[in-house]
What does this fold into?
Amino acid sequence: MAIVATNLKRGQCINYKGELGIVLGLEHRTPGKGNALIMATIRSFNSGKTKDIRFASSDKVEIVQSDRQKLEFSYSDQTGYHFMDTTTYDTITFQEDFISESKDLLIDALEVEVLFVDNKPVSIELPSNIELEVTESAPGVKGDTATAATKEAVVETGLRVQVPLFIGPGDKIKVSSEDKKYVGRA
It folds into this structure.
């Protein structure tokens, strides 16, 4: 199904020049001269890269049917990462190459949103912040607080995060799923 570029919305899946992607952002621009245009930020499902594409307001864009499913992370083993559909209680297994960058943030019962195109998973979206327990961290050095001093800590998933000096083992912290950085105490 093709629509006019001015009707594009965030979160829609499109096929642009044979490449599938999701619309992350839109900006409607009207220059002083000429026709209006749409600047769309698209993330490719194939490469995972984000790029800006300029559409004339009259351009047609092919919309791809997609389905979003909320799944809950159960566990991982040598066969893959296992998620449960909370409505049907079916287990869905994804391979490591699909989970890739998200695997350091997956904890039991974490609810994620998976985007399916033609019944194939194409992207996984985690909550913006994830609460993780610190399992290891060195003690803070007294008098080392002239600047925003940090130290390395290891959380329950094995991810290494820079945290403030006052964070210790057993503390719960929030980590951003976007850049895997410390956000605050939980």
Summary: The mean pLDDT is 86. The helical segments are 96-99. The chain has three domains: 2-63, 66-125, 129-185.
